[in-house]
Fold this protein.
Amino acid sequence: MTATALPLLAERDLAAPLAWRRGVPVSAAQFLGQARQLALALPARGQPINLCQDRYRFALGLAAALLRGQTSLMPPNALPDTLRALHSTGAGPGEQPYALLDDAALDVGGLQRVFVDVPLNGVAATEVPLIPASLEAVRLLTSGSTGAPQPHGKSWGALVLNIAAEAERLAALCDRPSLQGLNVLATVPAQHSYGLESTVLLALLGGASFDAGRPFFPADIAAALAEVPAPRALVTTPFHLKTLMRAGLALPQVELLLSATAPLSPQLAQQAEDVCRGRLVEIYGCTEAGQVASRRTTAGETWHTLGALRVWRDLADDGTERFLVQGGHVQTATPLADVLELHDEHHFRLLGRANDLIHVAGKRSSLAHLDFQLNRIPGVDDGAFWMPPEQADGITRPVAFVVAPTLSARQIMAALREPLEAAFVPRRVLHVPALPREATGKLSAQALARFARDALAEGGHFHVPADHPAFAGHFPGQPVLPGAALLTLVMRALQARPELQARLGPAPQIAQVKFLSAVLPGSDLQVHLQAQRNGVAFEVLRQGQAVATGLWAPGVGP
């Protein structure tokens, strides 16, 4: 990069809106004046952790830190323990982190606190300040395998190139000369790299304007879109978009829909384009390289690299295949965590993450592909596959967790048999109320593993479908699940706990049981198991209320 300093804002009319706060425009000149005023209130030294939930205040904090020459730290979460750990692992030599926040009640783990306020009488700026291109503007901190934050620094110069390439591509895909005048609303937080790049930075460096809010529920998203002037853009994720489309609300026209964090099905993309009367674009990237490529999902599976980026195949030192990216804002060759099918240096298909490949019965697939097929099933609101470390018979088989209140496990497995090889059709489908997704809609492997182990350790979740065969004749006109069928579910829960099953021996018997409430078609049940001195106690719950309790005891084998 030849320039030693680059503008804080891309070329734009300083009197035009840079942001919207509850329907009120804030000009670029006002923003710059307020950022300059906040910069004077920051500590002379240190590294801010920007915890502001209001996107406008987040942007003010980011800009003020840049004006003071400070690096903003972006931890993976805002938990107090994580923030305390940054005292030693996240900050640079001689630099202590401090918290920028807009919630006075937030626990920041003992860090120095700086409240980000919006002055009512700030002096509007008349010129755009310059930021050193070499300044490390943000340091993204991701949890590695050890749990210690892994830093990924982004210089201001690299961010300028990255966002310029994104803005140029998005404008071209929307048949616009630029993003000037486009108003961006987002369901993702600004602290996430995708939210940072495609909302705040897309406004500062790409010419768009952004809304300060972050609506989550469909009705709130619809109301916020109606409040933002046209032309509009919605920056979201497949999870949020699917929830919004399922709500069936009337939406104003959204010229650009932007999605990232997981592949989007072409059916959902087409539905979103039809409902919003706009273009849907997916962004592919990673923490290490930033934004890498884009595609209009309804136009096909091929991804197109941004700007001067190029990708190629290489072999690592251990002989394994890998794919690298370089060019534009990525100055050194950077490995990608995914397996690609290259068409050329600028076009590819995404086959899945290199570290989520699984092997079952001698066959290979990826968890991302399995999740994609699961979430395409009509009636599946959300779902994810999980591979247990081992199973009792020595053969590891995938387990599927689903949010699908209108479908039975049998129906889901039947729907998966068409697109998947038999080895990857799950033997167990567990209905759950929700999956532990982050605010971005992303479901991390660590969170899913904890969730899966907890669910299985509790005995699991069971959905009793209306077409359960035990309802036939029991009783006509008033179907009730028989006690024997309910105990079968408890036994299935025991089979998922080999250590508890071992306590009961080869022929367990019911020592006592009480049926407290009728189990009707469509019930969602949860089985809790607890080791006792004389066996294994169980409790079957429906919406937190016990429908059956009892005790399994060791039996006498033949």
The CA atoms of residues 69 and 135 lie 7 Å apart. The two ends are 80 Å apart (CA to CA). Residues 156-173 form the longest helix (18 residues). The mean pLDDT is 88.
